[in-house]
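re: that complex we talked abt at group meeting.

here r the seqs, copy pasted straight from the sheet so there may be weird spacing, ignore it
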Amino acid sequence: MSTLLWLALPYIALTSFLVGHVWRYRHDQFGWTTRSSQMYESRLLRLGSPLFHFGLLAVIGGHVMGLMIPKSWTEFVGISDGTYHLVSVTAGTAAGTATVAGLAILLYRRFTVSAVRKATTRGDKVMYALLAAAILTGMVNTVGENLIGGGYDYRATVSVWFRGLFTFSAQPDVMTGIPLSFQVHNVIVLVLLGIWPYTRLVHVFSAPLGYLVRPYVVYRSRDPKRPDANRYARAWGDQHE
Amino acid sequence: MRVMAQLAMVMNLDKCIGCHTCSVTCKQAWTNRGGVEYAWFNNVETRPGQGYPRQYQDQEKWKGGWELNKRGKLTLRTGSRLKRLLNIFANPDMPTVADYYEPWTYDYQNLLSAPPSDTTPTAKPKSSITGEDTKVTWGANWDDDLGGGPEQIGKDPVLGKLSEQVKLEFEQTFMFYLPRICEHCLNPSCAASCPSGAIYKRAEDGIVLVDQDKCRGWRQCVTGCPYKKIYFNHKTGKAEKCTFCYPRVEVGIPTVCSETCVGRLRYIGVLLYDADKVGEAASVKDDKDLYPAQLDVFLNPHDPRVVAEAERAGISGEWIEAAQNSPVYRLIVDYQLALPLHPEYRTMPMVWYVPPLSPVVDVLSETGHDGEEVGNLFGAIDALRIPVEYLAELFTAGDVGPVRASLQRLAAMRAHMRQVNLGEDVDDSIAASVRLAPGEIESMYRLLAIAKYEDRYVIPAGAGSDAHRLEALTTGCSLDGDGGPGMTAFDVMTEKFQLTDTNGAAPPDKTKRINLLDWDGVNTSGLFPGSGSSGNGSSGNGSAGAGAAHEPEAIG
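got the structure back, here u go
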């Protein structure tokens, strides 16, 4: 059981995540979009969407820090366990609260504004359920375990296991000993990662950072010689202003 | 100098009767699909009026186009690039579908399927977006012909810029139609605000297009365009816009809106411009200088230096010739009749308008004056400040000078041509008063009033510098041959109609004779009776040849 959950599932999910994105990028450029519903309703979106997205960006940043940076490194630069715990709990609670508030507004909007509800696909609903579950269990971990409860040092277990996945030396047995809420959170996130490329979440990977350095106006040649090869790269050549 | 070519359009507003044929045919061609029910790549709005979407010209509200920042540098009115990215999760300046109008259809099924009742069944309006019952309260041309009265018309943002007295008089007196498509700007703010770089300007013909594969649905372009001519397809999650009917103009035929225009008021032609000067022209300090600055960007296609530079830039001879014969160049540069729509947005728009003189003529006629007498017309243009000021807010950022000059030339043309047509003594001073020669006025008249198809549309066939190469490809195909894809229509016909007599209908001695109706024009065998009695053309020729070959021998 522990091998299935903590060794097979993560590799299946991560493979699906990677291969799925490559496959979809190559075969479904037209479907690769945010599918924004701002056309239908703007007022609630302007409240909920920035709260949710900026909150989530902070949450993801926190996860990168907590999971990818080994405990020994932070100790080496002189950050004590107590300090780390304090910072992570405070920032995590703030970011998590913003995310949850934003998500609540967005979900309320999605189910009460008729046009938005009609534009919600079955895939969207599965994705929203998983995303909401992942965020809520995450909040339970941060607020319930670490803020109100005694605190759980996931950096000694979850993080080590997670990094082990990438060096093919993960110890699934470590994970059976962690609190149940952490286990549930991890499983939900793995499933979410697995279906990620087949949902509208792909828009995360088209974050348009290139806009900051690109010339304002893009010129493209109508080139009948090579209609397909370098089709996307061409947009960035031959431009002025 | 860096020469680029642009396909541009001019619309002669005097001839627009507001029939919406252009809008309807455009919709049938491009936006009769789900997700763009509310979108009209071409729309016709009544001025004064709110326009479509409602009050789109109010840039204080919608933040479209460019502005000069404190340092005098050109920036998007909606903010810097960083600000755009920070607003990406919810665009604060984006119109919702209610600002356009909620598209609807009718429940026609109910007319047939309603159970028997005392009252006639009705077809209730249903929202095309939610499918639920809806109330129809606004449309793409709701205030058509000043519908809705002063209450609605008073919300025209252009009227808001005029003085109170002028405003009132205008509402009571004047009306004209303004058909609008994408402006295919030289300095497109939609492209500049696209985070994904999906909106591009085509280097060959200047048409601004959205790459549907690259668009990620960030919807910043909807805000960026001050003319609100980018539409978000709410089903596909991608931006869509007027394409200048590129599949049509690429083969040398006009756009659908132009082709079907009942009033024949649209002109399409090539303009050459100096791409190096665009940025500078778009950043001139005073809004009123934007129109002359843009005129200055256009290049004279008759100037040998311009032609040489154009050739060096890879523009084909066909395109240069089209630029020299361009009706658009004549209306914009030669006669300076056409003016840009809202140059103050600083996008350098490329669909220009000949302002309408008819409101002035109408007022004169209604008040019992001769609406075509030159003195009356000139006087009225000056006395009736109203139309001139309103038109100036539309076309020259409020500068009445160019509008007045354009209207005076139109008035002079009317007066001059009336004298010509009635056989009166032609007063050459009329033409001279608008700094034109009588011959120039008459050729202007031919372009505007006669407006022959081939004069209105001068579109180089195979729009693109590769046209000749492509042409060679289609005429010299290596797959030409029996049954191959390179077979000509004639080959197909030969095969289909069996160009030899195989149906046995010929007399028995003439079975190989060719039926002239079927003759392919090449093969002569069977065409002439042979010398032999068999009637077989080829064997008859053969035996005759053999006979001739033997003759010298016999003599020798």
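couple things i noticed - Chain B is about 40% helix and 10% strand. The first helix of chain B runs from residue 21 to 30.
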